[in-house]
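Question thread 4412

I'm putting together a teaching handout and wanted feedback from people who do this every day. The idea is simple: show students a protein as raw sequence, then show them the structure tokens that encode its fold, then repeat with a second protein so they can compare. Below is the first pair exactly as I plan to print it.
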Amino acid sequence: MASSSERKGTFKVRALQEIEASVQAKWEAEKVFEVDAGGDQGEGKFFVTFPYPYVNGRLHLGHSFSLSKCEFAVGYQRLLGKKCLFPFGFHATGMPIKACADKLAREMEEYGCPPVFPDDDAGAGDDGSKDSAGDAAEALLKSKAKGKKSKAAAKTVAAKYQWQIMQSLGLSDAEIAKFADAGYWLHYFPPIIREDLKRMGLKADWRRSFVTTHVNPYYDSFVRWQFLRLKERQRIKFGKRYTIFSPKVNQPCMDHDRSAGEGVGPQEYLLVKMKAVEPLPQALKTMQGRNLFLVAATLRPETMYGQTNCWVRPDMDYVAFELKNGDVFVCTYRAALNMSYQGFTTDNGKVKVLLNLKGQDLIGLGLSSPLTCHKIIYTLPMLNIKEDKGTGVVTSVPSDSPDDYATLRDLKNKEPLRQKYGVADNTVLPFDPVPIVEVPGYGSLSAVAVCDELKIQSQNDRDKLQEAKEKIYLKGFYEGVLLVGPYKGKKIQDVKKDIQKGMVDEGKAVVYMEPEKKVIARSGDECVVALCDQWYLDYGDPKWKDMARTALSKMETYSEEVRKNFQATLDWLCEHACSRTYGLGTKLPWDESWLIESLSDSTIYMAYYTVAHYLQGGDLMGGSTCPPYFIRPEDMTPEAWDYIFLNVASKTKLEKKDALDAMKKEFEFWYPMDLRCSGKDLIPNHLSYCIFNHCAMWPENPEKWVLGMRANGHLLLNSEKMSKSTGNFLTLADALDKFSADGMRLALADAGDGIEDANFVETMADAGILRLYTFLEWVKEMLASLSSLRTGPMDSYVDRAFEADMSHGVLTTKEHYDQMMFKEALRTGFFEFQAARDKYRELCVLRGMHRDLVLKFIETQAVILSPICPHICEHVWSMLGKKESIMHTRWPVVAAPDETLLKSSQYLMDSVHDFRLRLKAFRTAGSKCSKKKDLSMHPPGPQMVRATIWVAKTFPPWQLTILTTLKQLFQKHNGLPDNKVVSAELKDKPELKKHMKKVMPFAQAVREKVEKMGIGALNVTLDFNEREVLLENLRYILNTLEVDDIEVKFSDDPTAEEVIREECCPGQPRAVFCSDTFVNVCCINQQQSSGCFEVQVPVLDGDSAAKVLARLGRMGGHVSFDGVTVKLLRYEDPTMGPRKIPTLGCEETGKVVIPSEAIFRIKADKSGVEIELDGTRVDVGSQMSYIVVPQV
């Protein structure tokens, strides 16, 4: 499915894609990424994995983002000389594929094959078909379903029939029918996913790939062995436990089985039984004589002492249903269904409904409720009760609940409201809030106090009521003291559980569970909480938890927030159901009526990767034996797995001992796993289970535990959540087609690094394509013109600065790669690295770039960018004549850059940028003055712009005082104190009185520099000579500013204005521009075949001959007159001389050499110039000649 962003041209994308196809063919032919244990380990090994994706469809861009972290890391670690293994498997365990296949089979059975559906689709499909259709749409994407067709398909995912969804994707009827067999999905999608990943350039060893479930006998054997050992070690137990449950498929629904609600668990409530008091209202007359209870789900049993009434919503649907003991509960049907799976009803999962009711039918009903001080309370209306939470019946405690107080107050104060819902006065007016809990700061009626504080007027002030609850609920729990009952005087948090237990023991309440939030199974139905007999992994075992915490403490998480999320998960994680009866997977070895669920067969499979190539050799299903050992599935007994992974010698003879030794060697070489990358949503389940199970399988070998896990946020597309229904969605295949592999990879790297949600921006991908293509074309241009590039020494300032910039870029980029900060690595290793090249090219515009530095830049750029954009880097590498793949090269070794040179280079560029801004402002002001005819800024006649650059040797005295004081404060406080302390220290300094308005702004600016640079920002001098840097690059400054003359002076020069002396400081030169009148003088070179041209050179009054020659060099297109002698000549007869035809070889005849010390003066009538020498003026006219003589 493609997003809506369209482009006009694709030439550059196609060019990159052609390169990528060629490079990938080369890698495959050379088997670059196939790697085995053994041999010289060199700089070490690096084993990285990505959670194998579920194979019910093509990968989308979100998958690509997470796995790109593995991909970039492998590329970098290879450059460090490590042996790197990145295997990739395919997950099919669970119920989604089976559910979709069964749905297709039912449609064919009911409607034929191909099916003929009824015109009226109101009854089409089964429950929740809309949701399962959405999953199927993702599952059935094909390579031909792209672009606009994909967007159309995205908008039809609400179709009720699975068959229709497949048809909308362009699949033939004959092909669709095959998907009714769940096994066909396993053969169809993994090869397609693998090809997409190859097109991405994934550095995977595909020999080690496999598909899970029993269809793969080798992996099936591995998982069965794992569970046998876990059971032996008492990590797996059996018993009744509460779990999220799918009524439709009649089995537990784990995270991977859900289309919504991943990570949601059961929430425990106390179900308070409020017995109906006869006489009953008309709607309940048939319940006369029975034990009838309205049941309210509460998280705060301690507040039951303060009940004044019970709430129902008048327009909500309720049911009265029968329990297995004959009692009758009244609540919503959703809650009743949950209860039916928790042992409340006679038949599990069945609700015996006796009455269907509206909330209005219950208003006025008298109730006998536990713990309250009132003998009878009444059912009253509340309008904001939610249907998807609790039972629809709510106890009212207006002393401690802002919602309850606001609603009760409305009913008491508003008679029309009572009349509207038929509320009798005696059921509400006598009841006032009952003080039961003392909350510090809010007293014994905390809800009343907070409502008064926030000026809450009614139950409709939703935002203020939410704020009120946030203010008092947690404070009440942690600090509140009970004022009534047997636990009077004790803190709520200490007695809450005791109160709950007492109510349950006395039969006044029961424990009730429901999902924390709505959970939708991939089968389409809303899940409940069920009390089931189950095999479960006992993650709550204290010793096992301690091991997991130890493993986490030694593990690299690359983010403190990720570590905290892991710690929180390890704290709350208890039991996890590891079995089910429906779907695909491996059967429990000791009870084959159960299947191992999808999160439980995927915890240590990374170990299987290390040996998979010996077992399957790239055959995803493990359907046949493979060389060199031709191991059969039956050879892989539990004892064989013990020998490979646990180093346990078998008491019986093992088959194919040489093969097992080879596999054992592979495992010992590659383990432990160095890195696992995933989305943050897998921290509470898969990633934490991985930690636990590694600890369980290798309890005595902590060196086998995982070394690192990196979690990232979700991926937005163009700043919005990816959604098939809106068309804002891209599969991996779509992205490869639209942006090329390297274009997509660059945008993925730029999308973000942290645990916060990242953002793939299509315009950024397009810009990346342009950058890559431009780089490629520049490389071609440079390699084609190497002979024209400068050679010789590389000792000029710009050469040395460029080399320092490259070294700095290599080192900082390495730091970012080390920290897996790929967005930053891209910034420093490509964007800023290219900017350094551009700066060098700009600085060398007059002399040209050095050939060796250009070649060094191209080679270095290819290497440091190769982890992110490997295809174009491989192509550039081959263009440089390198025979071996760039995948085998090493990270560049560079010396530490000259920091002073880096600072001075940055100083130069920052200064020139500031000069440009000042020049623009000067020209803008001059233009405005010209319109106003202000001759002070814009004198008449042609103008030349001159600049004076003022450089400070030290800071002005007032700034020096501030810097010195701040440095003292920094050293005293080990950092800068807050501005109040700084202000107090500076306000009485006598040298600052005159500048008091500027003191704190300057101090704040310095503070910001200190935050970036540290205490070095407080130095009062620079590490380099500013004036020398500017003078050495004066030609560049003149050329880039396009001014005619520049002088560099110190700010303490007597001619400097006061503002310059007061404001100019080290590191911040000031450029002052002015306009001067000039005349153009024609300078002609009359030498034969000289390559020099006639140039109109502007001459200012007071110019020296040397200045005019320098200006001639710039304007004539000469890099400089270095290495030659240039003579400037005037005509003896300034009127007739220029008219005479020159004689070849006698260019000086009739002319006089102008001495370099001569000063030019503009004639009064502006018709030409004169020269002044020793007080004498000589007419030059409007034309001169110049001769270029090579030095011998």
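The second pair follows. I'd like the answer to focus on this one:
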Amino acid sequence: MPENPQQQAVPYKEKRFLGTISSFKTPDPLNDENWVAWKGQITPMLELNGVWTHCDGAEVVPPPEEIERRKEWDTAERVARILISNNLSVAQFVHVSEAATVKQVWDNLKAVHEHRGQQSITTIRRTLYQTRAQDGDNIIAHLMNMRMLQVQLHHMGLKVPDVDFTNILVSSLPKSWDPFTTSYLGSQTGAKVLTSQQFIAIIRDECNQRKAANGSTDGTETVLTARSSKHPAKKKKAAEKEKGKRACFTCGRNNHLARDCFFKGKQKSASSHLSNQRDAFTKFTPLNKTIRGVGNTKVPVKGRGTIRLKSRTGQNFVIVLCDVLYVPQAPNNLFSISRLDESSGRAIMGDGRIHLYDKNETLITVGRKVERMYLLDVTAYTVLERAALSTETTNTWLEWHCQFGHIGVSGLQRTLSKRLVTGMMVNENDPPKFDCDACTQAKQTQAPFPRQSESRAEQPGDLTHTDLWECRTTGIHGARYFISFIDDCSRCIAVEFLKTKDQAFEKFRNYVAYLEHQYNMSPKCFRADNGGEYITGDLQRWCASTGIRLEYTAPHSPAQNGVAERMNCTLAELTRAMIFSTQVPKFLWPEAISHAAYLRNRTHTRALDSKTPLEAWCGRKPDVSHLKEFGSPVWILNEGQLTKLQPRSTKHTFVGFIDGPKAIRYYDASTRQVRVSRNYQFPALSASQTNANTSATLPQEDPVQSEREIMPIGIESEPRDLDTHLNESAAESRKRKQIEAAPDGEVRQSTRQKQMHDYRLLDDPWADDDEMGETTGMTSSEMARMTSAERVYTASSEPNIAPDNPKNLREARDSPDWPNWEKAVKAELDQLDKMGTWELVDPPAGRTPIPNKWVLTKKYDKDGNLLKYKARLVAKGYSQQPGMDYTDTFSPVVRLETIRTLLALAVAEDWEIQQMDVKGAYLNSTIKEEIYMCQPEGYDDGTGRLCHLIKSLYGLKQAGREWNNELNKQLESLGWTPTMVDPCAYARRTAEGIEVVAVWVDDLLLFASNKGLMKKIKLELESIFEITNLGEPAKIVGIKIDRDCAKRTITISQKQYIESILQKEGLTDAHPVAVPMDPNIQLQPSEGEAQDKSNNYASLIGSLMYLAVAT
């Protein structure tokens, strides 16, 4: 029935309501199941009474001034409402009780019962295609249910063609109906194709005929043996009379009767399983027949169905018996061996035992002989077990493949064959071969390379693998690259070092000449990747002129040069391990690479079974008795003219061998050179055991950076700075010269008193006065060990740079500005609560919570005017335990050189500049570790609970890193790319122009070619984080910025920062001079007790260094 019948609205004066309202009732009121049928019945009633237009909205409400029309409209509304209400079940009134008009009533019912979403269509469509009837089911009810699903899809906008629906009906019938449906549908062609209505009528007639036949015929089925009729001649004569008069009930053909049908005879000739237990059936169909064979008498058969047996052979096999006859008078439950044989199983009997196997040759159960029968070791499933099995369905391999999340079909086959799960039933006729488009799109990979090369060079020099490797740390002699040559036959390694890539051709020729002159070899082939150093015209022409063949890998196939790629990785791994183990300077990586190649030539490799690469190369077994650990201390004889009191040898660092044990290479830290000597002596201890003793002679480096220095091309790493090594080496040199120049070997020692430190608090950048005794958290010794970049960051981020900032919450409460500080504290707590920073939990056993404190600062503009009071809750991360509370802590910030460069570019290119601040930046990242913190200082609820941190909080050692990772991930998702020179400067180039974002923790400097791009950047960032728009930048990291767009100039200064330093140190009234100290003054050491002001001195030095490098 159409949803909106196309009919013309009837004038009110012509409308006549037919009969009494109570006489218009549908056979079944509307419920949750019959919307489609009910809608088809109620719509004609509404049309007949002329009120359908009130339901579909075609009849609008007349204006109030038309009184007569309004009365007619109200009457029609009541009629329509009564018609609908009289045909609703009680449960449906809840959907229409609040509706004001009949249209609202109809719309509410449609919204509840008529789903039009794609998900609903998919569900009904899947049900239509997957519904299957079983033997014993009500076939007529099954067909009506299928027709109802088709009608529902039609109402939802999905038309199922009648031909397709007929095929769906055929496939939904039990297999026992296949002979019958084949006889009707197999011969249908052209215009004679049956419609679905005709097919349903034929099936309905056949069902009725079968019911009549079962009720009137005393059919017999054999259980153990087949018995024929006592009067075969009479049966044959009667059959001949019946031929041609009526169709066979089984296959539908007219040339025979049902009892003579080939298909039915085939079923009758087989023995049947038999059971006398009604509660053992999982599926059951009542019957009224008799059989012979049980006690040689006729016994009644009360039904047929399916029984599930549980085998007790050691594995939980489920044996499913179909078409089992229910014979209450049978003395035993019988298992048919002939039925097992029909299912490709087999039985082995002997010695009083029987073993039953399925078609997969899997033992399903066993039995023992009792009298003249075999008692099987099986039990029927209980009621609860059958209830659990009732959800099992028979699916195709493709359906199971999708339901198992697209795992491979081979895994599904093993799961089914080994019976690893229960409830998995597969259609036996479905082949386990199918095409899954989703798997093709998601799982297709490159063709695999063989684990080993299919061919190997037979002679050394026939094939050489080569590859170039880059290190971002400049070697001691200026090397930035090394090129490796690996012989394919012997796997012997040779390495050469390069300052630039264009030297590769020269190193290539040197290696060929070395082979020709030293080993009388003629290289034939070199295999390399498509790097620019190998595809140069000079190299190709030279190889062509010398008869050497160059082989290049295919694009995107580095595995074809896997020998060289893997060898370079191995050398890099050995180099990193040796450098980390002995803590030698990282600029010695070329020496470590050479030593690693030296060692690899003398060790086992899987490519050679019983030889080392060196033996395979030159035929000589290597001697390794002279080997020493790389970086070990070694005494080198001091040669030349020496005084009588000077030492005869000096301890240096061993870095490799020359020509076996005859000479070694060593590193002289005093001159920063690698030398060769044959007069050496190793101490008894190894490098790792004597590392503490040798550290005084080696330049000390940042242990964090050492993890990133030695790595191959393509792995991101931070910029390296070797200035520290150079400065420290020079300092060591000066110290050594002063010691040598001191008379009689006396060395002047410092008289400064040593200060005792509380090592638990040394790493606290916001230590309280009562914890450290001073404002800063760094001692002079700690400042001395910091790199220049760390000193700059410490000075620029020092929270108490303003002298009037309270140092703790107690001091803030005692100040007259407490109302302002209290507002700032509450705003911070609200921000932490909004971001879900922590959850209050009971203290866990064995965990010590980390404390916290409030950092209170006043924010000023570029002219020194107070902008706001800011409070920040900071965790005291110095109490965190490495490995438990944090792992990595490194977090970069934009370099000051980058800021100055971007400001200069903005002036030159007339870019737009804006500044933004991320509110609660660290709170946007989630920490991975389990950390507990005390409740905020001064705001403890007294319950003793702890804060289980969820978000990263300021002060945690990993907070900066987690925030930087989160920001980097979000910016890269928007198309931003970190620049090569600065990982905290992100750039993006589009057709509209250039965009740059510079990141200093939570301060963002935005640069764009035009205002449109700038607006786009702001909208993107505001969609991800909570941002404060600061407009034109006036001040960032203590640097004041003044821009004059008209004059195209920009000025940076740190006047306010300098004044704050002078005020803090009490030097505001000092007179400025051109020279800070008279060079003629002779300073004398103090004879009294030294005044230790190391903390103030270190802080002042850091601030002055920041001034020097910032502007």
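Top answer:
Good format. For the second protein you could add a caption like this: The first helix runs from residue 35 to 48. The radius of gyration is 46 Å.
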